[in-house]
Amino acid sequence: MSVQIGSVQFGDGHLGWIAGPCMLESRDLALTTAQQLATVAADNQIGLVFKGSFDKANRTSAGSERGPGLDAGLEILQAVRDATGLPVITDIHEPAQAEPAGQACDALQIPAFLCRQTDLIAAAAATGKPVLIKKGQFMSPADMQYSVTKADGAPVLLAERGTTFGYGDLVVDMRGLVQMRRFAPVVFDASHACQQPGAARGSSGGQRDYLEPLARAAIAVGIDGLFIEVHPDPDNALSDRQTQIPLAEFAGLVQRLTRTS
């Protein structure tokens, strides 16, 4: 099984990459990040999809920054695609967002907390674009087959991002990668697998030091793609400060992980 996002193949022996900032904080930040990611992708001969969120609608606190919104965010993603040639993906939270996002993007993402929302998945699938569905922290890998069927035959990828372990932590069961690959190509979300939900006083914390070893383990088990959030200055990012990796470190990480694969 394989799914194509733009020119990037996930599956059938191809390891696709999805990378970008958690939030589309500004046009300049997105373009700077995307241009460097495009250079890394070309230098290392990997297929890469640029990811950025126009709205972080599931923040821990209502006072947290959410992003530029639908219209401004899609304009930024279009600018990224025009300037770099990279395919782009963003997440949607409501069915009405699917059509405009599908016109501007090469694929749509369903957030983990919304992976059972039938109308949302159906609306994303109706755009004709590939749909990346993140496994909910509360879902078993086997139950993700039902989310796949809600896409009604559209190209689907599933993403593993960890399972709730008590309060404020996640654990990755590598058996789930094997199980979900029976239904669709699987992307390992190494960034959010390091997250500690709600552990930073009204926002999520995390331990980015575990990102690389978890990614190595996932590659060893067998996956079709890697999802890694990057930011020029993670410690001052507006979201996911503790799980995004510095943009300057991405090239070295790619080189080490491609040797692993």
Write a brief structural summary.
By secondary structure, this protein is an alpha/beta fold.
Folded structure, characterized:
With 261 residues, the protein is of the alpha/beta class. It is 32% helix and 21% strand. It has helices spanning 27-44, 70-84, 98-104, 118-126, 144-150, 175-180, 211-221, 250-260, and strands at residues 2-5, 8-11, 16-20, 48-51, 88-91, 107-110, 131-134, 156-160, 163-164, 170-171, 186-189, 195-196, 205-206, 225-231, 245-246. α1 (27-44) links the parallel β3 (16-20) and β4. The chain is globular. The model has no long low-confidence stretch (mean pLDDT 91).
Number of strands: 15
Shape verdict: globular
**Structural Rg:** 16 Å
Main β-sheet, in a few words? 8 strands, parallel, barrel
N- and C-termini, Cα separation: 18 Å
* Sheet with the most strands: spatial strand order: 3-4-5-6-7-8-11-14
Order of helices and strands: EEEHEHEHEHEHEEEHEEEHEEH
Task: List strands and helices in order, with pairings.
Blueprint: E1 2-5, E2 8-11, E3 16-20, H1 27-44, E4 48-51, H2 70-84, E5 88-91, H3 98-104, E6 107-110, H4 118-126, E7 131-134, H5 144-150, E8 156-160, E9 163-164, E10 170-171, H6 175-180, E11 186-189, E12 195-196, E13 205-206, H7 211-221, E14 225-231, E15 245-246, H8 250-260
Parallel strand pairs: 3-4, 3-14, 4-5, 5-6, 6-7, 7-8, 8-11, 11-14, 14-15
Antiparallel strand pairs: 1-2, 9-10, 12-13
